[in-house]
Amino acid sequence: PTAAKTLFSLFQGCNPLAETGRSKLQNQRAVLNQQILRAVRMRAGAENLLRATTNNKVREQVLLELSFVNSDLQILKEELEGLNISVEVYQNAEETFSIPLVPLGLKETKEVDFTLPLKDFILEHYSEDSSEYEDEIADLMDLRQACRTPSRDEAGIEMLISYFLQLGYVENRFFPPTRHMGVLFTWYDSFTGVPVCQQNLLLEKASILFNVGALYTQIGTRCNRQTQAGLENAVNAFQKAAGVLSYLKETFTHTPSYDMSPAMLNVLVKMMLAQARECVFEQIGLSGIRNEFFTLVKMTQEVAKVGEVYVLVNTAMNQEPVKENIPYSWSKLAQIKSDHYKALAHYFTATILCDHELQTGDDEDQQEKALSQLYDHMPEGLMALAVLKDKARRKQLGKAHLRQAIVYHEEALRVCGLCKKLRNIDVLQEVLTAAHKRSLLKYAQQETEDDFLCLIQAPDILPKTEHKIETIAPQFSKVKVKDFFHKLGPLTVFSAKQRWTAPRTIHIPQGTGELGFHLKGGSPVQIYCLDPLCPAASMGLKEGDYIVSVGGVDCKWLGVNEVLEKLRSVGEQPLRIEVISCQDTAASLHSKSATYSVGMQKTYSLICLAMDEDKIDQTKKAPLKLPFLSWGTKNRQKAASTLCLPSAVAGSSQTKKKLLPFTLLNTESSLY
């Protein structure tokens, strides 16, 4: 217990009562979730009454009540949206002059008590004293409780992933595919606040993964964007967030929660990659942007790329069915950013044209090539080299780009003013206003006498980047966890998918000489080649039994050599061993040559071990194959298990050859 407590002390959540900005938001989210739950229940009751009644007066009263409930739900949804756009709380505490980044809020959950279900299962399924596992169950529940308030750093990420990996062990140990365990998991939708309740452990695993991604976004927004290291960390965090959310979308495809639907996750992945791209642009320009021709060309294409990805994000946010549940302010912020960064691209292009004349020593070919790469096509009647050489044409085209930049800036300010939540974010207003004034000042510095005669339209800027942004897949293998219920034995044998008899004690009297059986397999070891006339067989030992203890010492994790050593150490004393037998109709024989596949859905492996066909009676081999193959086909839809034929033909004598097992491995339900 002391070692377990020391190990667990590494994983502790934040103090839920601490009055930090983030904890206040999470507490407000929890309160809103409860209010939304009550309103949803009232609406469901009113709708049921409306369907059931035929009384017109009752129907009118119910319809009136429904209108009030729907109005309350809309208000609560707007309050929840306000929490989702409370980006200032998650930003770095240092003074910054950057557009805020959007984090994801953590999903809220109710407490879960594993004690009775797991203790009952240990007693019923594993035939062990469940009181010996109270500390392990308590550790599991403490870890889950800590995961509700993870710290906003790598330690918090490691804790969430540790619990996710621990759930993989718990699923295989205690959750059989044929029945529910009676453990109810409740998680609240991050966007709608509506609860989802299931007895399926996959909901728990998917929600924990969502919170891993959400925590990465909060780490990314917290980074100091005034330093190179801070921006690098932010880019890395958003890429990892996108990787976790992408993994969640591909692995858990039927989650009943809106925030974890494939369409919503696809939008969130796009948004996180767009924010990573935005941080890359800030990183390039952090040390200052030199007013030099080729530097400005590079910055123009980079910032145009940022504008392009936000256009894609905004388009995705306005598609059904995501449009109904995505926060309205998020969609508008994506639109604002797309307009803002497209305006910067036109401003940089105008600076190239207005501030840089082609000098005698300049490389005309390189400048012509660089300018041509900014456009899909030049305005009608203009050539890149001619524009570079002609001052008047450069000025005209530059002013056209400035006008276009001003249009985009004004559109960004207009959209920001229409959204109440965004209008209250001071730093956003300051950044947009400053960029708009800069473009106006640049335009005012140009000669204006020919404005009414200038009909040139600024062409669109082609986006281009030298920096690759992609998802970073979660590295679960880097987080080392130990199965809390390691004492139950090797997971490949002692799992919820296989049923075993209660341990039987076999007493072998002293002075019997040879034991009358051989051992095989890894851990635990199995009995094979049992002499039916030996004392152990007369005491109830069977072919294929697993040895779980020798002389009262647990040996579920010991190999053949270690068990043999314990058997020899008894000497001439009476020997007491405990064994268990498989209760499945097709006994599962452990063999070092068996193959175990995990992580591949709907994958079946048929492994046929070597058979000595010359010594097997051909007339008896054919009838055995048909029942096995038809049985395997009939049960193919069952959950993952390891099923084998018996090692010997029923009724055969000790002298006849045994059939080595055919093993069917089915991992259809294995999502971990």
From TrEMBL:
It is found in: Cytoplasm. The keyword NAD does not apply. GO terms for cellular component: cytoplasm. Residues 505-572 form the PDZ domain. SMART domains: BRO1 (SM01041), Hr1 (SM00742), PDZ (SM00228). InterPro entries: BRO1_dom, BRO1_sf, HR1_rho-bd, HR1_rpt_sf, PDZ, PDZ_6, PDZ_sf, Rhophilin-2_HR1. Keywords: Coiled coil, Cytoplasm. One of its GO terms (biological process) is signal transduction. Residues 100-449 form the BRO1 domain. Residues 15-89 form the REM-1 domain. Belongs to the RHPN family. This is Rhophilin-2. The gene is Rhpn2.
